């Protein structure tokens, strides 16, 4: 009779180094985010050509952008619970397939109205891809390296945007604006084939849903020296029933969920406010367009590098304090920026710190949410945190236009924009206190409700 040794999935992942299997999984998640990033920003590259093709004004094109943002928000809310119910792999493949097919379909739009509808549907897939890529990556990360490994994945979004910028002028000049959308669909569809063959399902998800033989097969690929016939995989969480969304608001999780939602909303409100309006606002202070564009690029660089830097620090100090401190530094830098644009060195430093403490800290928030929720609700928790952020992004995009229309002084606008960042810092500090006061594992809370 074979005596099986009981091993939890987390202890198995934590007690060994990174295998080639795990590294490949991270690379696939990164490629998902690269294609997501390209398709998220592609409209910005083809907007001038769209205006000419449809003889449309900027106001007439605005719903096309708005539909995409709205689709991103809805997709986050929908695909998170689907991943907790049907699996990370299937949901990720479905999300990538959706935005790939519909991006190609968008190239054959015959009217603005048709393009609005197709960009909304494309946004659904885009909104579902990012949070589930983060979730799967977290579930294959050792706890000691979680933030260091997962945070750089956020650079995939930036890499996709950079790739779009590099090919836009050549493709549009040779083949028209449609080529950008076709490329934005062809790459994800090719990736779907790769994902179907090589992307693994989450071991934690498999054990949660009593598919232990599949989890043991993955375990053998990570650690061939361990015999699956002598191992019984378990979770350090009790099982839970019911809707994953309902789990987020149960006792023991409710307060943390509200803190995370508020953080996501406030952070992405400012990220998109600055992403859409920063160059114009800098010009309003008297800085030439060329210099204003470079300053905006520095801010975006801070977004990308900030994710990597904060991820490194989060594994070496209290991660809540790292993220909250980054938000707080960004709030101070942003509030002061409108008063120091005449001092280039200080202004550039302030913008870089703002980038680190907004976009970079938002990536940190996603990692905090993945660590806060149990397996049965993890994808939903990460996705709904990002979904609330997507709602904030819509608000942030609108607020900039309203403040400019009201002719607010530029320094005042930057000061107002710093307030949501400060609120995000307070919320992350609040989450830290909440976790100290609710030390029970979330799984225990769920199992007893």
What is the fold's blueprint, element by element?
Blueprint: E1 5-8, H1 9-14, H2 20-54, H3 58-86, H4 88-106, H5 112-139, H6 146-150, H7 155-175, H8 178-198, H9 203-208, H10 212-222, E2 231-234, H11 244-248, H12 254-284, H13 289-314, H14 319-337, H15 344-372, H16 375-405, H17 410-437, H18 442-447
Parallel strand pairs: 1-2
Helix pairs in contact: 2-3, 2-5, 2-7, 2-8, 3-4, 3-5, 3-16, 4-5, 4-8, 5-15, 5-16, 12-13, 12-15, 12-16, 12-17, 13-15, 14-15, 14-17, 15-16
Q: How much is the radius of gyration in Å?
A: 22 Å
- The count of β-strands is 2
**What is the overall pLDDT average?**
89
CATH topology of the largest domain: Growth Hormone, Chain: A
Q: What is the helix/strand order?
A: EHHHHHHHHHHEHHHHHHHH
Distance between the amino and carboxyl termini: 38 Å
Shape: globular
Range of strand content: under 5%
Number of helices: 18
CATH class of the largest domain equals Mainly Alpha
Corresponding CATH superfamily of the largest domain: MFS general substrate transporter like domains
What low-confidence regions span 5 or more consecutive residues with pLDDT below 50?
A: 441-449
> What is the level-2 CATH architecture name of the largest domain?
Up-down Bundle
Question: Domains counted in the coordinates: how many?
Answer: 2
Residues in helices, as a percent range: over 70%
Strand order of the biggest β-sheet: 1-2
The largest pleated sheet is described as: 2 strands, parallel
Structural class, by secondary structure, is mainly alpha
